[in-house]
Amino acid sequence: MTETMKHTLLFVFVGVMILLEGMTDFLFFSGSWNSALVILNMGLISAIMAIGVNIQWGFAGLFNVGIMGFTALGGLAVVLVSTPVIPAAWSSGGVSIVMALVMGALTVVAAVMITKFMPAGKLRALVLAVVLIAGFFVYRAIFDPAVGSVEAINPALQGNIGGLGLPVLLAWPAGGLLAAGAAWLIGKTALGLRSDYLAIATLGIAEIIIAVLKNEDWLSRGVKNVVGLPRPLPYEVDLQSDPSFVERAASWGIDPVTASTVYVKAGYALMFTVVLLALLWMAQMALKSPWGRMMRAIRDNETAAEAMGKDVTRRHLQIFVLGSAICGIAGAMMTTLDSQMTPGTYNPLRFTFLIWVMVIVGGSGNNFGAVLGGMLIWFFWIKVEPMGILLMELVTSGMAEGSALKAHLLESASHMRLFTMGLILLLVLRFSPRGLIPEK
Amino acid sequence: MDLLNALVALTNFVIVPGLAYGSQLALGALGVTLIYGILRFSNFAHGDTMAFGAMVTILFTWLFQSVGLSAGPLPTALLALPFGILGTIALALVTDRTVYRFYRQQKAKPVIFVMVSLGVMFMMNGIVRFIIGPGDQRFTDGERFVISARTFKKLTGLQEGLAIKTTEALTVITAVIVVAVLFWFLNKTRTGKSMRAYSDNEDLALLSGINPERVVMYTWMIVAALATIAGVLYGLDKSFKPFTYFQLLLPIFASAIVGGLGNPIGAIAGGFIIAFSEVTITYAWKKVLNYSLPDSLAPDGLVQLLSTDYKFAVSFAILIVVLLFKPTGLFKGKAV
Amino acid sequence: MSDNPYQDDHGNKDASITNVKGIGTMQPAHLKSGPTHKVEGGPFLIGDTMTGGYGKGPDILHDCTIAVDKGEIAVIVGPNGAGKSTAMKAVFGMLNVRSGAVRLDGEDITQLTPQDRVVKGMGFVPQTSNIFTSMTVEENLEMGAFIRTDDFRDTMEQVYDLFPILRDKRNQPAGELSGGQRQQVAVGRALMTKPKVLMLDEPTAGVSPIVMDELFDRIIEVARTGLPILMVEQNAKQALEIADKGYVLVQGRNAYTGTGKELLADPEVRKSFLGG
User: Fold this and answer.
1) What sign for the dihedral angle of Cα A392, B95, A421, A5?
2) pLDDT at residue B333, as a whole number
3) Which of A84, A429, B328, C134 sits at a 20 to 30 Å CA gap from A240?
4) How far apart are CA B285 and CA A160, in angstroms?
5) pLDDT at B43
6) B230, B50 Cβ separation under 8 angstroms
7) What is the 3-state composition of chain A as percent helix, strand, coil, each rounded to the nearest 5?
8) How far apart (Å, rounded) are the C-alpha atoms in residues B202 and B192?
9) What is the CATH number of domain B3-253?
10) Mean pLDDT of chain A
11) How far apart are CA C173 and CA C137, in angstroms?
């Protein structure tokens, strides 16, 4: 069997699994097209995130453990771009908030300038401290009252500065830009240090981003969530009340409710596939371009590349920003799919480390591997739970009815998920360390 | 103005909790730093190792409580701790045998070990949730306070109370003992010195007849013990929840890096720096300022620099500042 | 990309998650020791007609023979890239010796790992990274004696007598010492095992001429105690002056062999390697 055939078969396997999910309720499959499409959609989004991380890790060896943060920024972009404008919020405090943020940014810039241009010594430390402390208090003095007044506006539904009221699809590139901006800041700091401290920096920043989203109610309503975000596709209820749609569904022999949900989800699947294919194509082109060859040259021998006059830090920063932007786009797509922004649900295990499992299992350095890993691992992530319950039922079938152990085992079966992900990762790292579709 | 009351308030809300949290972070960071120094990678599974150790201890605590065994005024968990440590050592050694050793034989790069530790992290996380569930568990018993706020007020006649929880006192005392024993071990015993030698220069250690596998085994045993103690102390002081332990990774890594990765003294200093920064920056200073400033200057607001939800941000900001000025950490990294 | 997938780090250099300082780089020929057997006669230590290279790589040494007897100093010299250090590493078991043998004190040890050769009595001082920089001088010596189960205080005293400066600096981290002092620590560490033979890989690399002379004096002093010394040297002239035996290697082969004096007097050797 040739390599290409093996790799094609792997993709076919994932496809068949998802088809089976829709067709049959045998074993752990649910037999619902709805559920199959849900898995497919999140699988596509996961594949995009995996491409983003793969670009960073596979091509440049950058260890990003802050994927969650970039994903969440993508989600924030959806809120800021697509929710309706709230004029009252802008007139009451929105402008002051922006001013305060600019003040804060200026303070940081001033601090950086001072460290750069003043000679080191006690004077510099003093000036730095004064600037930072004064800046902080001025910022808080403008910021706090403004936030108070914004949050007071219709708090049950809004209480935030709202968005721009633009079409939600614009939020996807905006999410990419937002993530890219954050990545640039992080990369500039963490890659510019004498040794590279990217991992801990991304780990920390991701937590900070989530903390900001959870607490700054004026921005994205914090843990009160933003629900009912605009969608690029029609609502199911509208479809169900549309006579022509109902008629068409009837001609296929499907009831209108199922038809409408499947129609919407299939629509998303189509859109996501387009984005995935576009990004995949771009990533492949970039990889084959002189730029991609240079990236790999740097990765394989940084010292030699440096000696040839390549600015390694700059290149690393570039690729870090690009990869994070892709994660931001995926994050925006995910929030669009959910049509809600729920900062409380971001969890590093799910949004950072699971993506890493996808990249490693798929094959670090290979974009197709990343896509495969994203889809495959996502399928397992969803399906391990029913599989675990099935397994536990089998294991406990011999036990006495009502025994405490049996109850505990059945109840805990759902926690098999994390365990299984770890097991898959370890097995792949051990027996197929280059992943399912290795880099060529 | 009432400086004495201000001091008591400061001690009560900042110094005592800071000391306890700092000790917990320091113990956690010591484990991370030892693995980094000797096995040469950052162990992402450390938080979950702590959770596992705490879990085993909790199970034994429940067992002891059910048969009526107790440590008098001290938490029963202290009696269960040795069993927790043994269980965690067993887990660490089994993990090393079945997982990590293979990569050592392959002379795998440290970053591969990091990825492997991600897998171990997932699995341990799953095991802990599988056995004890994802929920909150409280297992503190015995006397709640060494000195309660009311007793303190009665004793001193001050307006402000000072409460020291048994768990806080226990945390600090245990941490001091553990750290003293650890440093004695590393600096005075033959095995401890061989561990430092291996960390310093692997090849030369090999040529001196030091057996790497033994060094690694001792390291895992010590790290498992440290993780269990840190996990149990944290759980006693706050509460036990698997996810919280996983999230402790960030402040623990930050402590280890701020102090200088690979340097045990740095890990301890880093733990306290991070803990005190978190506590002071997220504490509402109104009370202390009200006592220490003349009435005319008394603040209106809470004088809280950042809300408590930003404590991660604080650890991280400190980290960046330290790295900008001292890239190897405050205590030059790498001197296990 | 590395051939071994487990060694492929994608060029990652993240100091917050990986620690490469002091990481092992040694590539011993054997990971597990094979059998040894007794042999009769021959010099005390000999690498006999060794041919071999690193791992599966091409041969670097070709029928190269290096030997040293009790009470002797043997010196390996030659131009850059001649395989001087390689020859010594072959004797120490860091090179895949495909044909030929290494014999020490009447025993064929070709199949042993470097660690086991240390146990058999080889004291080896690498050219670089030859001390534990974060540990005190005394701890360095203690680690040298790690394989010994008997009382090693006498040996430590002997080392201090040989290198008095180390006694003064015994509680100072070895990494804080000067280059010459570090080399003394390195030699002292190797002496702590009470080796039967001492192997030094360019002990004077990177030290000033004055320190170099002092180091050579010490090495002679060690040799006077009866310990055979095998040494690779960049400074051919000085080295041959103190050598009982000299080996001039060229491209992994023995070019000239003789006593130190003979080689110094040999016009060919002088012209080619000693600058006239």
Assistant:
1) negative
2) 54
3) A84
4) 28
5) 96
6) yes
7) 80, 0, 20
8) 15
9) 1.10.3470
10) 89
11) 6
A433 and C6 within 8 Å at the Cβ level: the answer is yes
pLDDT digit string, tens, across residues B4-33: 888 888 888 999 999 999 999 999 999 999
> What burial class does residue C200 get, using C-beta atoms within 10 Å of its C-beta: 0-12 exposed, 13-18 middle, 19+ buried?
buried
Q: Can you tell me the distance from the alpha carbon of A428 to that of B114, in angstroms, rounded to the nearest whole number?
A: 14
Indicate the domain borders of chain C.
Answer: 34-121+240-276
Q: Do C4 and B106 touch (CB under 8 A)?
A: yes
The pTM is what?
0.92
Structure tokens given for C268:
């060919």
Which chain A residues are closer than 8 Å to C5 by Cβ?
433-434
Residues of chain A under the 70 pLDDT cut:
1, 194-195
Put simply, the answer to whether A426 touches B323 (Cβ < 8 Å) is no
Question: Do the beta carbons of residue B72 and residue B57 sit within 8 Å?
Answer: no
What pLDDT is attached to residue B138?
Answer: 87
* Touching subunits for chain C (3+ Cβ pairs under 8 A): A, B
How many Cβ atoms from other residues are within 10 Å of residue A314's Cβ? 11
Q: In the CATH scheme, what architecture does the domain C34-121+240-276 have?
A: 3-Layer(aba) Sandwich (3.40)
More confident residue, C21 or B35: B35
pLDDT band with cut points at 50, 70 and 90 for residue C276: low
A19 within 8 A of A39, measured Cβ to Cβ: no
Report the 10 Å Cβ neighbour count for B267.
34
What is the per-residue pLDDT for B335?
44
Q: Which residues neighbour A226 within 8 Å (Cβ) at sequence distance 6 or greater? A: A79, A83, A160, A220, A340, A341
Out of B111, B197, B335, name the one closest to residue C12 (CB): B111
Per-residue pLDDT tens digits for C164-213: 999 999 999 999 999 899 999 999 999 999 999 999 999 988 888 888 88
Q: What is the distance between the alpha carbons of residues C230 and C246, in angstroms, rounded to a whole number? A: 10
Structure tokens at B61: 């605590």
The verdict on a CB contact (< 8 Å) between B125 and A349 is: yes
Contact assignment for A204 to B119 by CB distance below 8 Å: no
Question: In a mutagenesis test of the B interface, which of C146, C151, C193, C198 is the best target, namely the one with the most B β-carbons within 10 Å?
Answer: C146
Helices (H) and strands (E) in chain A, counts: 20, 2
